[in-house]
Amino acid sequence: GLGGFFFDEHALQSMRDGRTIGTVGRSRSGRAVNMHLNGRLFTAAWADLLRVVRNGGKAAVFEVA
């Protein structure tokens, strides 16, 4: 998996040490979040990430080919 992370504005930050590990932005439709990490693009459903923030747990994050 991607490991633990949080969003700070448009930066993806490591939960381990707080350093910036990538960038993040919402999709044009607003239904997904796109994350750039180590030269790779990942996407996740915005509603799924909000559920994780509210309740804890894990979100499904998919790599875009």
From TrEMBL:
This is Uncharacterized protein. It comes from Methanofollis fontis.
